[in-house]
Description:
This protein has 71 residues and is an all-alpha fold. The protein is 55% helix and 0% strand. The protein has three helices and no strands. The chain has helices at residues 9-14, 23-39, 55-70.
Amino acid sequence: MPVRKFRSLAEVEQAKRILPGSVEFSQAVRAVFWIAATFSPTRNAPPGVYKFHSLEEAQARKKTWAHDRDE
């Protein structure tokens, strides 16, 4: 989608509007979701707060989460 610059609010009012249900609207929504899926970080751990007694225990748990995610 091209980026449009406006010098005044009058130019904004004259700009073409994309109506919901149109082909252009569907393409714009699809592009937004594609960008979100492409650039969003992957989740490395299940949601929640975890406490560990040592750094080694935390690193071992992190490896199991990565292993479970890859399966």
